[in-house]
Write a structure and sequence with these properties.
The complex is a heterodimer of chains A (about 350) and B (about 300). Chain A is about 45% helix and about 15% strand. Chain A is α/β, with parallel strands linked by helices and about 350 residues long. In chain A, the strands form 2 sheets. In chain A, strands 3, 4, 5, 6, 7, 8, 9, 10 and 11 form a 9-stranded mixed beta sheet that branches. In chain A, strands 1-2 form a two-stranded parallel sheet. In chain A, helix 2 links the parallel strand 1 and strand 2. The N and C termini of chain A lie far apart (about 80 Å). Chain B is mainly alpha-helical. The chains are: A alpha/beta (about 350), B mainly alpha (about 300). Chains A and B meet through helix 1, helix 2, strand 2, helix 3 and helix 7 of A and helix 5 and helix 10 of B.
Chain lengths: ~350, ~300
């Protein structure tokens, strides 16, 4: 039996199509066969700049690997959608609230092994406390930001945020979508009730906080401070200190009751195929020289006790046990369990 | 004159004239008395028409105007009235490697998507309209279904599919996602043209000896071109601005412009966002303008 030219043509076309399809599917496997790839998450902005220009390439060179950083949110749904045995990330870098959600779903390992990450021995206790999944490599202090040119001086307490003179120039966050806003709910419970979990006291306090300008992102809050639309509001220290040297009339206030911690946490995924490299990365990020470089770029307080910052940074960031003692860690595991209820309630409070 | 002698027309006219004149006078007088009121109503109607149109234009263009003001204002925050005019945010945008990479990558993805969506959508519309397909309505509903599904779910579903196939997040995967959500536009606009298509033109070509291929390229395609082209423009713009599908499908280091803007927004809310938006709007406008110059969009405005 002989095949007609048309049949031959069709068969060749199908073969070519199948080959191309197979090639397209297998190309990534072939490409990634050369060197190990460590998939991590990370931030954009100045953090992303220095990671891609200095810190990341130095790690790649030292460990002969490729560091692939995903800076496009949302990290958790992507990790959730990927296979547990072949997760999309090897190291998840995000804030503590998301890490707890990931840990609850078994997407990240709850703790980092000190034997595999020797620099863990040098971190402040808060970085590996029972309020932390994985390890906190940096923290920011959530306190009050203020304008210094509007006659609002001498602020010493969180409770001053409720004073009537700040009506119209008070700033906060859309609580369901912002970690600072969520941490602030717990602070309200502490300030006006029996503790972080006293939600009734927190709701009552939030009700009295109106009128208040709410934003989604800390970047937007910074701009409200710069424009003078907000004169007293909740913000993290790095959001104010990053304008250092730009002659802006803004400052950060550490209230007497303490500051909330906004941790930058690393956790390793259980299904990672490059666990050794993942642990090496966590250890690398805790090295004093790496910590110093990042801390002085983005104004985050380093978790490693042995980091010696330049005087300007040392004076403002949490670099001594005494300063670190002012940190109030949030029980995110508890908060995440109540999140739906809290979201619903605070939405009602601020919608009215 | 006998009593029943018919009146001459002139007599009839002359006899009826006084009554008719008085009726016309009354009507004219009445019309004159009504004219100011009617004129007022017309003027009021025109004013209302203009007001509504201006309000609609303001509603449509105000966001763009605000973005332009934000992009040109030198302060690093939104301020009104603006304190001056500066190009510093445009300089920052064009000097930023991430933004430039994202801009070029977005254009690349949009062009690939437009090619794929136009080819697949155009062929699908032809098959649905002319192929006598069994269950053509169901096929059409399936083709249009991405419009009904929230795009973020389309992105998530594709992401999961790629993860299962262990192919990572390649460029073709992103283009496939964009193609999926842009095909309905091409199908819809092409079908609109095919709906009014005169089959006799094709039959005439065939009767005159043209092959099926020649008939398609010389008769069918030129006639459906307006619909295909309109769909292609939609596909380009939808892909270039696509956010929810891209959110899950962009790979590290290869982010599209909307994703890069979103990530930037979390940390910085300065005029760079405005500058990027202005560039994005201008690019979309330039694409439409270029198409108009090359293929004459004005002829297809009826679509």
């Amino acid at each position: 039996m002989t095949l007609s030219p048309k049949a031959m043509h069709r068969r060749r076309f199908l073969t070519l199509g199948a080959s191309l399809g197979f090639g397209a599917l297998s190309a990534p496997h072939v490409a990634r066969a050369d060197e190990p790839v460590l998939n991590i998450t990370g931030w954009g902005g100045k953090w992303g700049d220095i990671m891609s220009s200095d810190i990341g390439p130095a790690f790649e060179k030292e460990f002969n690997c490729k560091l692939r950083t995903d800076t496009a949110l949302p990290f958790l749904p992507k990790l959730q959608a990927s296979s547990r045995s072949a997760p999309i990330y090897d190291v998840l870098h995000t804030n503590s609230n998301e890490q707890w959600a990931a840990a609850e779903m078994g997407l990240v390992e709850p703790k980092v092994d000190p034997k595999l990450v020797p620099n863990l021995a040098d971190v402040y206790p808060y970085a590996v406390s029972d309020k932390i999944v994985g390890v906190s490599i940096f923290t920011s202090a959530i306190g009050l930001g203020m304008r210094t040119d509007k006659g609002f001086a001498g602020i010493t307490s969180w409770k001053e945020l409720w004073e009537a003179k700040y009506n119209g120039v008070r700033g906060g966050y859309v609580i369901p979508v912002n970690s600072l806003g969520q941490a602030f709910v717990m602070m309200c419970g502490t300030l006006f009730g029996k503790g972080q979990t006293d939600l009734d006291a927190a709701y009552a306090a939030l009700e009295k906080l109106k009128p208040i300008k709410l934003v989604d992102f800390t970047g937007a809050m910074e701009k409200l401070f710069l424009s003078g639309e907000v004169c007293l509001g909740v913000i993290h220290d790095s959001g104010i200190y990053r304008y250092d040297g730009q002659n802006q009339p803004i400052d950060f206030v550490t209230p007497g009751e303490g500051v909330l911690s906004l941790e930058q946490v690393l956790a390793i995924t259980p299904g990672s195929k490059v666990k050794e490299l993942a642990n090496a990365y966590v250890n690398y990020m805790l090295r004093p020289e790496v910590q110093k470089r990042l801390a002085e770029t983005v104004w985050y307080s380093p978790a490693n006790r042995n980091v010696k910052l330049d005087a300007k940074y040392d004076a403002r960031l949490l670099t001594t046990p005494e300063k670190v003692a002012k940190l109030i860690q949030v029980d995110w595991k508890w908060y995440n369990a109540q999140k739906d209820e809290i979201d619903s309630r605070v939405n009602r409070i601020f919608r009215a | 004159m006998p009593p029943f002698a018919p009146q001459t027309p002139s007599q009839e006219f002359s006899g009826a004239l006084p009554a008719a004149t008085s009726l016309r006078d009354r009507q004219r007088a009445s019309a004159q008395s009504r004219r100011p009121a009617a004129g007022k109503r017309i003027r009021a109607g025109r004013a209302l028409y203009l007001t509504v149109n201006i309000a609609v234009l303001i509603f449509l263009l105000a966001p763009i105007a605000i973005v332009v003001v934000f992009a040109l204002n030198p302060t690093p925050f939104i301020q009104f009235p603006p304190v001056g005019v500066s190009l510093r945010w445009f300089q920052k945008f064009f000097a930023a490697r991430d933004f430039m990479h994202a801009l070029v990558f977005s254009l690349e993805v949009a062009m690939l998507t437009t090619a794929c969506a136009t080819l697949l959508g155009g062929c699908a519309a032809l098959a649905i309209a002319r192929g006598n397909l069994p269950g053509a309505r169901i096929v059409l509903a399936v083709m249009l279904s991405p419009l009904m599904l929230p795009a973020i779910l389309t992105g998530l579903a594709l992401f999961q599919a790629y993860v299962l196939l262990d192919v990572g997040r390649p460029l073709w995967g992103l283009v496939a996602g964009h193609t999926l959500v842009t095909i309905p536009y091409v199908v819809r606009t092409t079908l609109a043209v095919l709906h009014n298509f005169d089959l006799r033109l094709e039959e005439a070509a065939r009767n005159l000896g043209a092959s099926p291929g020649r008939t398609f390229f010389e008769v069918t395609l030129p006639l459906v071109k307006p619909g295909v082209l309109a769909g292609a423009i939609f596909a380009f713009i939808v892909s270039f601005d696509q956010f929810p599908v891209s959110l899950f499908l962009v790979s590290p280091g290869n982010e599209t412009l909307p994703i890069t803007l979103f990530n930037y927004l979390k940390f910085d809310l300065d005029g760079t966002i405005g500058a990027a938006s202005v560039v994005s709007i201008l690019l979309a406008f330039l694409v439409v303008l270029a198409l108009d110059r090359t293929v004459g969009l004005r002829a297809y405005v009826k679509l």
